[in-house]
Amino acid sequence: MIKNKKIVVVLPAYNAEKTLEQTYNEVPLDIVDDIVLVDDYSLDNTYELAKELNIKHIIKHDKNLGYGGNQKSCYNKALSLNADIIIMLHPDYQYTPKLIHSMVYLIANGVYKVVLGSRILGDGAMKGGMPVYKYIANRFLTLSQNLLMWQKLSEYHTGYRAFSRDVLENINYKANSNDFVFDNQMLAQICFQGYEIAEISCPTKYFKEASSINLKRSIKYGFGVLNTSFSYLFQKIGLFKYDIFREKESS
């Protein structure tokens, strides 16, 4: 704990056998109270390895629900564990767990409710081997979103995020897509609710075992991002209403 805040790390896993142990070993257990791993019907031994590592909370889907569906299970479980701060970390070792301290302290001290690990602040993305086409797409989509959503983020596409509990309780993340655009929809919801977002520079690694979507899925994701941004704009100006921005129903 930090300042009596319970800290839970969630690991949305899919075929993460080769990188899970390295990721797990760098999680700062001096401050992290619980780890939740959700195995989205992996085809390798991710689930078995998680048990060998004695990860306390393991959920195995009986079918593949997709990246967004995986995160929904992660956040549902973290909230049920009474987490005060939730960190979403990919178990593919693309992002270093060594930044968890810095991200958590910003939330625990009441400075921000949301913290992102940005690959774009500094030059971590290109140094880490981000493909050029992905870097260009990232910059184009981020510029488009900043203009359409009146924000100033360095990127919307990082998979390294920390949230205060009340953020997850107040956004309707269950209404989001089960696909990769889930992340982007979450940030749109967070901005819509008026939460301020902190960003810290995060090195990243692109290598064979790290998860990455192919060009076809990237194009689909890009159109999904633009659709999310226009939906945000249209809802803000009162032109249309969308489920992802409706108030979250109390459970």
What does this structure look like?
The chain has 251 residues and is an alpha/beta fold. It has a single domain, classed as Alpha-Beta Complex (Spore Coat Polysaccharide Biosynthesis Protein SpsA, Chain A), CATH 3.90.550.10. It contains nine helices and seven strands; from the N terminus they run βαβαβαβαβααβααβα. The model has no long low-confidence stretch (mean pLDDT 93).
Unreliable stretches: none
Classification by helices and strands: alpha/beta
**Order of strands across the widest beta sheet?**
3-2-1-4-6-5-7
SSE topology string: EHEHEHEHEHHEHHEH
Under CATH at level 1, the class stands as: Alpha Beta
Query: How many DSSP E strands?
Result: 7
CATH topology: Spore Coat Polysaccharide Biosynthesis Protein SpsA, Chain A
Helix content: 25-40%
**In what range is the share of β-strand residues?**
5-15%
- The outline comes out as globular
List the total number of helices: 9
Provide the domain count.
Answer: 1
CATH superfamily: Spore Coat Polysaccharide Biosynthesis Protein SpsA, Chain A
pLDDT averaged residue by residue: 93
The end-to-end span amounts to: 27 Å
Nearest-angstrom radius of gyration? 17 Å
Task: Please tell me the CATH architecture by its name.
Answer: Alpha-Beta Complex
Main beta sheet strand tally, sense and closure: 7 strands, mixed
